[in-house]
Every structure is written in C-alpha cells, then in structure tokens.
Amino acid sequence: MDGAKMDQMLKVRMEEVERILKTYLPDVSGMQRTVLEAMEYSVLAGGKRLRPIMMLESYRIFGGNERVIEPFAAALEMIHTYSLVHDDLPAMDNDQYRRGKLTTHAKYGEAMGILAGDALLTYAFETAAKAFALTFDAARVGRAMQVLARKAGIYGMLGGQVIDVESEGKPGMTLEKITRIHTLKTAALIESSLMIGAILAGAKEEQICQMEQVARNVGIAFQIQDDILDVTSTQEVLGKPIGSDAKNEKVTYLTLQGMEASVAEVNRLSDEAVSLLEQLAGDTAFLEALVRMLTVRKK
Amino acid sequence: MDGAKMDQMLKVRMEEVERILKTYLPDVSGMQRTVLEAMEYSVLAGGKRLRPIMMLESYRIFGGNERVIEPFAAALEMIHTYSLVHDDLPAMDNDQYRRGKLTTHAKYGEAMGILAGDALLTYAFETAAKAFALTFDAARVGRAMQVLARKAGIYGMLGGQVIDVESEGKPGMTLEKITRIHTLKTAALIESSLMIGAILAGAKEEQICQMEQVARNVGIAFQIQDDILDVTSTQEVLGKPIGSDAKNEKVTYLTLQGMEASVAEVNRLSDEAVSLLEQLAGDTAFLEALVRMLTVRKK
C-alpha cells in the first residue's frame, strides 16, 4: 500500500472513530456537568485513535459488519484516555500539557482530574455493556468485556504502569523487566483491540490468539523503536526533544542490547506480525500497512 | 427479628462475604505485587460488607441459589473500596486514617493510592465478567454488568461525588441538590446491590424496580439519619466527633427541614422500603431487619 493511499484510508477511519466517540460520549448536562465536560475535553483533545481503528479493522477482517463493535471501540478509547489523564496527575508524571493542550487536571483541578479518569474508566464499561442490546450473542459480548477489563487491569496496562513507576530511578533493570513493561503497559490495550474485533466477529480461538500475538509484537516493537528514535532522530522530525533517555541515564532495551540488535528485533517483530496477518483469509492490507507504520516508523 | 438473632445472622453473612472476597481477590505475586498488596490491604481493612450482604440476600429472596452471584458480590465491594481509596487521596479528603488504619495512599504513597483505586475498579469488572463462565444465561449477566457500571459511574455514585465536591463550601445548597447527592453518592451502589441480586435470580422487571426503590429509600434515609445523629448522639456512641456539620456550617437535609420533618422523613422512607419488601413472596425477614437497622439507627 503506497503512502498516499494509506494516509487517505487512515483519515477516513479516524473520522469514523470520531463519529463513534461523539455518539457514545455522555451528554454534557445536569448537576454533574463539570465531570462530563472534563471527560469530553480529555477524549476529544486529539490523538491518533489507533486502538479503535485497529479494533474496527480486525472486526472487518473476520467478516464483522454490525454496530456491536462500536461501543467497544468507544470504550477502548475511553480507557486509553483515562490512563493518560491519571498518568498526567501531579502524583504521577505531573504533566501540564499534552498534545499542546492543558492536561485535564491542569484545566479542571486535581480532584476533577482524578474523578474524570475514574469516570472515563467506569463509563467505558457502561458503554461496552451497551453492546448487549445490539446483538443476540451475549456470550460473545461477555467474552469481549472480560478481555477489555483484563488487558486494562493488573494483568495488563495498569500492571505495566505499576512496574514502570516502581522501577523508575532504581538500579536492577533487566531485559526481562523491560519486555514485561512494554508487553503490559503498551501492548496489552492493542491486544484487547485486535482480540475484541476478532471475538465479536466470531473468529476461531486460533485466530483470536494470532491477533493477540500480532498486537503484542506491534506494542513491543513500537517501544523499542521509541528508544532508537530517541538516539537517531532529530527534535524537528520527532516533535519532542531527543536524547532524553541518555540524559536521564535510563536503562532501555537499546542500552542493554545495542543498536544493531535493537533494529534487528524491531524488524523481526514487525515481519512476524505481518506474516501472521498474511496467513488470514480476509483483506489484511490496511492492517499490515498500519503495523509497518507503527513499528518501523521514522517519527 | 430480635437483636440477638439479627446479630448472629449478620455475622454469618459477613463471614460468607469475607470468604467470597478472599476467593476473588487476585494472588499477591509477580512484578506488580505492590499494587496487589495495596488492593488486598484496602479491601481487607474492614467494613461491614453491607452492599454484598444485601446483594446475596436479594438474590436468595428471588430464589437464586447458584455461584453466579459471587463474582458480582466481590466486584461490588471492590468498587465500594476503590471509591474510599480515591476519596481519601490528598487532592480529595486528604485522610490519613480510616477505621483506625492508615489509608491506602498514606501507607503506599499517593501514586500507588491512585493506581490501587484504578486497579480495584478495573478488577471489579474483570471479576464480574467471571460470572459468564458460571451460567448459561449470558444476557442476564450482561444486564447485571450494565447496572453495576451505571450505578458506579457518572449517573450514580461518581456523579454524586462530583456534585458533592463541587458544592463544598459554596452557597446555594438546595433540598433538591442534597437529595440528588444522597441518591447518587450513597443510594446508587445499594441500588445496584439489590437490583443485581434480583436480575441474576431472574426476577420480573417490576420486582427489579421495586428493589431499586427499596435501596433508594435506604440510601437517602441513611444519610438523613447521619445528619440527625450528628446533632443528637454522643461521641462515645457514634465513635466519631459529633456536631461537625454545625461546626462546618454545613447545609444539610436537617438544617433545611428541621428535626421533626427529618425524623418523619427517615421513618417514612424506612416504612415504605419495608412495606415494598413485605409485598414480595420470598423470605424477606432478614432484609427487612437490615433496612430498619440501616435507617432508624442509633449509631
């Protein structure tokens, strides 16, 4: 798939996700309107919507063509957003800006930052549960909800965040630990994205498992590529300062394994993911191009 | 039901809930063990387990006798606990002690307090989703999950907390707003408790609605009684300082309506709840006694 076509397809799918998000975000009205405003502000503050785009694509690859996927796509983006809102809190990363805008706690105050994150997380499950009304196959929706909760929680994204927070500034970082952090903190939500698409479309166990593996490779490769770009790119291309890992004496996959092995690992993970997708019967061209874009990326 | 028998039954049911909680809490092991410890510490720090006890009772009243209710009972207590953990945070009430023990953030640090609350909330939904494996009636479990999420979220407990936080120290408190705060912040989780018991036992729509009303009455009456005891009780009986509402010049149901009307309203709500329960075919004696204990209480 050439770059121009890919950009065009991405744009169309982003617009699809924006429409779904606006459909499923709660109305901003009533006595609790501040938290509703803060939720909407956080979710609509931008972002590439990669997780819901990948979920919708996985669903289509396995023949899904119903609206049952939409509440899950919205729920996943709400969970991703909640994690950013809470990561930005003063007790965590204490960030005042994200994507050039005030972070939620910086705009609405710390208490409302905590509550808006809690609200997004809870509303994600309320939203996902709306899928029960859109299908007769409640068991499938139940399975999807279980995956959503698990991959967001202690055995997924949140678990990775805990290990990351606890490792910060401490000696003893190992390759095993780094890979665990990447797998949980970054890959888990992508796993839920591709898995839920497959589950709701009625894919076979083996295929659901394959999609989980594709997502894991994408997540881990994305993070190693992050380390590589921090050394090889420029601030102009990346849009953020480079050399920050070296400055913070951060132990990364790259510092432990070296440049050559790191580049090779990104390529291996990326090739394997694409090859897993090629084995499927559906039209996987867009998802393959997306996997390449996210792993062997230049910025 | 006499007091001694009630105490004995309550004790047995508390032990049942403790057993369920221990079954469903995650194992404390692995790289993310700090958050797992903090979750266990928070949930096992005590509490009367009233919400899961009421859920189990509602389930039994409508003839339920399967294990499918257990993950929901555990999930509800996890959600209640997450709300306490986040309420205690420095940016919220900034409490160092709860029930004579260090609060979660005081013991594990603020970042881990936020993460442990997030973890409990997410794990509650992961736990509830385990019910899908315990029944063939996935639609019923789906409905229960929807109620759980809704009553915990912006249209339930969290919404009430937002209105409460925003009203603090500001003029303009009205009876409507106070009742809304009580209904959302306190009654909503009790509503989910009694409703989910009824839903999973296969109760009729009308009965589910009745249980919601019983729970709403209990929640509102409990809060008005709280105002009353703050004026009429003693520190020895209550186990906490009295007169705090007057000291903080807090506008409450009692200050707006006066003592006579407040006592009458508690009795009305309590009587109505008991009368709704009396209309049901099942054995409602214990739940009726519990409603009386929670509303027209002396401490």
Q: CATH superfamily assignment of chain A?
A: Farnesyl Diphosphate Synthase
Q: How much of the sequence of chain A is in beta strands?
A: under 5%
CATH architecture call of chain A:
Orthogonal Bundle
Structural class, from helix and strand content of chain A? mainly alpha
Main β sheet profile of chain A? 2 strands, antiparallel
* Rg over C-alpha atoms of chain A, rounded to the nearest angstrom: 19 Å
Helix content of chain A: over 70%
- What's the number of domains of chain A? 1
Overall, the morphology of chain A is: globular
Order of strands across the biggest sheet of chain A? 1-2
Low-confidence stretches of chain A: none
Distance between the termini of chain A: 19 Å
Q: What is the quaternary state of this protein?
A: homodimer
Q: Calculate the mean pLDDT score of chain A and round it.
A: 95
Q: In sequence order, what are the helices and strands of chain A, one letter per element?
A: HHHHEEHHHHHHHHHHH
Which fold name is given in CATH as the topology of chain A?
Farnesyl Diphosphate Synthase
Summed up, the helix count of chain A is: 15
